[in-house]
Amino acid sequence: MGCGTSFVKYVLFFFNLVVALCGLAMIGIGIAVLMNWTVLRDLLQSHLTVAPWFFIVIGSVMFIIAFFGCCGAIRESHCMVVTYAIFLLVIIIVQVVLAVLMFTYAETMKEVLVKGVNGLFDKRSSDPAANAVFNSIQQQFECCGKTSPSDYGVIAGVSDLPDSCCTRANGVVGKLLSRCTIADANAIGCADRSGELYDKWNKIIAGVAIGVACIEVVGALFALCLANSIRNMDRRYA
Description:
Layout: H1 3-34, H2 38-43, H3 52-75, H4 78-104, H5 106-123, H6 128-141, H7 150-156, H8 190-236
Helix pairs in contact: 1-3, 1-8, 3-4, 4-8, 5-6, 5-8
């Protein structure tokens, strides 16, 4: 194997080693938050406002893909390197499509997001899973009901609200009051909050997705180059 191919091999290996470590770190953060690890929660209280399962899922995907890249490069396995390149190409396509949709159909995607949140609220009384997800949304985003806390009063006819309506910005989970009423609850509804967050972050997320896709294109080209070199070497010594 030539010097140029060896360079590609080691660049691919170390690049994916860093990605794998980042993936493990994200999994660790997600698990620590799920386990209510107070030290980490307090440290990240002003920076971590998304569900910990998001970190676990994204970290797992990063680790699995990087595993194929690392092992394929260091073992000079044509099959693993090609599999890694295919994974990358699929992710690149998904990222680019998502970014284009977020740039060109921003309002439509916002409406879909808001309808999804409203749908969860409507199903919460009959679906325990939907209720748990909506309570998590209320805690994470410090909101209550679809449009306001009065949504609970109109539907249920009660003065007390779910505890998740009374979270305050004192960490990832927030500090719950002993009894939650409309007077104590977060005033903004979750549909409005979701719309605000989408307007704030959609173009940033789309731009980051395009930037990361450009880096991934380089990684895919390196992987395909290495796979081609491995195949040629196998044919030469067959």
